[in-house]
Amino acid sequence: MLNNVHAPDYTDVFEVTLAGVDALSAEQWSRAVLEGAPRPVRWFLVTGWRAVLGLRLGPPSSPDHVLGWRIASNDAEMIRLESHSSLMTAWLILRVTGSTVVLSTNVDYARRMSRPLWAAVGPIHRRTIPYLLGRGLSSLPTTFGDSTSR
């Protein structure tokens, strides 16, 4: 451990490259990816985060939250979203570099049962995140998704 910084117990990273989206901020992208998902998918995500992982989410419509995840830090190129439960602390980091969007999920386990719980939900997570990233562009306002409009 160095300066109270340690590697999370779980990390994954997903990347998507899409032409014409380099003018979007990390917050715009995070809102497109999570809040722009179809209603049944958003319901599934929020239900899983709350009921299965026990994450404490904030108000989904709050400007300080993205689909209930608290905005811990935010600038044009990177946003860090956090949520906690008695089982774990989780954070999502979304970075935008040109037309590349990278989303990492990081989880610190707080209890012995956290690891097997995450092992059970991990395969769903690893299928859902690429889907959300891939469709994120379709949920953006038309002017962002159309590279000829800039």
- Measured between the Cα atoms of the first and last residue, the distance is 46 Å
Sequence stretches where pLDDT stays below 50 over 5 or more residues: 142-150
Using the coordinates above, name the CATH class.
Alpha Beta
Largest sheet: 6 strands, antiparallel
Instruction: Please state the second-level CATH architecture.
Output: 2-Layer Sandwich
* Beta-strand percentage range: 25-35%
The strand order across the widest sheet is 1-6-5-4-3-2
How many strands in all? 6
CATH fold naming: Alpha-D-Glucose-1,6-Bisphosphate, Chain A, domain 4
Order of helices and strands: EHHEEEEEHH
What gross morphology would you assign?
globular
Mean of residue pLDDT values: 87
Rg over CA atoms = 15 Å
- State the domain count: 1
- Binned, the helix content reads 25-40%
Overall structural class, as computed from helix and strand content, comes to: alpha+beta
Total of helices: 4
Notes on the protein architecture:
The chain contains four helices and six strands, in the order βααβββββαα. It is an alpha+beta fold and 150 residues long. The protein has a single domain (10-137), classed as Alpha-D-Glucose-1,6-Bisphosphate, Chain A, domain 4 (2-Layer Sandwich), CATH 3.30.530. The protein has a six-stranded antiparallel β-sheet. The longest helix is centred in the last third of the chain and has 23 residues, at 114-136. The radius of gyration is 15 Å and the shape is globular.
Descriptive keywords:
six-stranded antiparallel β-sheet; 150 residues; 6 strands; 29% strand; 4 helices; 34% helix; disordered C terminus; Alpha-D-Glucose-1,6-Bisphosphate, Chain A, domain 4; alpha+beta
